[in-house]
Structures are given as C-alpha cells and as structure tokens.
C-alpha cells in the first residue's frame, strides 16, 4: 500500500486524532462509553501529540473509514 501521512502515528495516536477530528461534542459521546483509564490515556496522547495537520487528520479518518468498510 502507498504511504500516507497517517503512517507515522501509533494506533493510540490515530484514535486520539480521530477523536480530535470528530470534534468535541461527538468525541465526548464516544468517550462516555469508555473506561476512565482509557479516557485518561487518550487525553494524555492528545496533549502529547501537539499540532496535527489537516492532511494527517484526513489520512487517519480515511484509514478508519476503509477499515470500517472492510468489515
């Protein structure tokens, strides 16, 4: 497969970027069904990530979409 801007991120970072891209309200809805340690890990990951480019966000979203369509 061709490399994408999302390739440099770990799976946890990709989930964090996915949540950022979803926006605060939708992310909060998703997080409400998760365990507190998971939410804390994701929050720490988001803070550690720093700025994420629109291209990186789009690449991560596309990866999640492709994975979802494959199942």
Folded structure, characterized:
This protein has 71 residues and is mainly alpha-helical. Helix content is 72%, strand content 0%. The protein has helices at 11-22, 24-31, 36-49, 54-70. It is globular, with a radius of gyration of 12 Å. The two termini are 18 Å apart.
Helix content: over 70%
Number of strands: 0
Distance between the termini: 18 Å
Relative strand content: under 5%
Radius of gyration: 12 Å
The ordered string of helix (H) and strand (E) elements is HHHH
Secondary structure elements and pairings:
Elements lengths: L10 H12 L1 H8 L4 H14 L4 H17 L1
Helix pairs in contact: 1-3, 1-4
Short recap of the structure:
By secondary structure, the protein is mainly α. It has helices at residues 11-22, 24-31, 36-49, 54-70. It is globular and about 35 Å long.
